[in-house]
Amino acid sequence: MKLLHSLATDPMAVLAGCFIWVLVVAWVLSAIGWIVTGEIDALTGIVVLGLAIGLGMVTIAPPVPGLGVWIFLGAVVTTLMFPFVRKAMTRRAMMEIDLEQIQRLCEGLKTNPGNTGALWRLAQLTYHMGLQGQAFKIAETAVDQMPRKLFPAEHREFDQWKAAVRPSVIRPAHCIGCSIPLTAGTVWCPSCGRAHILDLARGRWFGPNTANKLIGVWALALIALVGLPLAGSLASVSVPLAVGSTVGLIAVGVVMFVHLLSGHGGTR
Ligand SMILES: [Zn+2]
């Protein structure tokens, strides 16, 4: 009778309480799948699992009346975001393959700096990473040694770059190792011997990536949405318990966020 009563007084809450479990099951299965395939690490996966189940429970018994519907809407938006997060993860995996190639090319160019084929390939990879100024100068060196008649495709591509690359992006960058400014197109730092172009490419794609940032923000938002009202409702039982669980939740949120932003949220 309680259900019928709730259905009559607050049908949205009852519907949210039912449909949330469809989403929870989808999340739990996705998270388990991602842990198994190594797309996310176990710690991130466990937090996602915990949040999904906590979300379902809070939606059926919201500590604040009406909160269940909002949590349900939040869960729907999150589910719609999933494909974009996956896409970002795939892109990252591809970038890592490119970085490995850049590293190999740099090593080859250390022993044979005049290898025009390697220079051209390095220019292409860095161009597509968004390091246009660097790529342009590397390509210039390569193209100078490639007769137009023998390398028409390369010259055609370089001509397109000439039209697209603004002169302002061709500027020196500081070496990470010794901080001297190096002109655009420098592969190896002549002063400290670091693979300068590899550092620049890494700086572009390592560090916090989009997918981890999104998951971090999502986890924080859900911890706030689910955990804090729940902890607040404990205040009627025991104030220290409510304060303790709030502090605990915030700590979990911060640890989670730092964990993801330090780049440990995905596979290497
Ligand atoms: Zn240096």
Question: Which descriptors would you attach to this protein?
Answer:
74% helix; mainly alpha; two-stranded antiparallel ribbon; disordered C terminus; 1% strand; 268 residues
Q: Give the % helix.
A: over 70%
Q: Over the alpha carbons, how many angstroms does the gyration radius reach?
A: 26 Å
Share in β-strands: under 5%
Number of domains: 2
Cα distance, first to last residue? 54 Å
In DSSP terms (H or I, runs of 4 or more residues), the helix count works out at 10
What is the chains' assembly state?
A: single chain
- The number of strands is 2
Shape: elongated
The biggest beta sheet is recorded as: 2 strands, antiparallel
Question: Mind explaining what this structure looks like?
Answer:
The protein is built from ten helices and two strands; from the N terminus they run H-H-H-H-H-H-H-E-E-H-H-H. The protein is mainly alpha-helical and 268 residues long. The chain has two domains: 2-91 and 208-264, no CATH class; 114-186, no CATH class. Helix 3 (42-60) runs antiparallel to helix 4 and helix 4 (67-111) packs antiparallel against helix 8 (196-205). The radius of gyration is 26 Å and the shape is elongated. The termini are far apart. The site of zinc ion has 8 residues, from loops.
Layout of secondary structure:
Blueprint: H1 2-9, H2 11-37, H3 42-60, H4 67-111, H5 116-128, H6 132-144, H7 152-164, E1 173-174, E2 181-182, H8 196-205, H9 210-233, H10 239-264
The protein binds zinc ion (ZN).
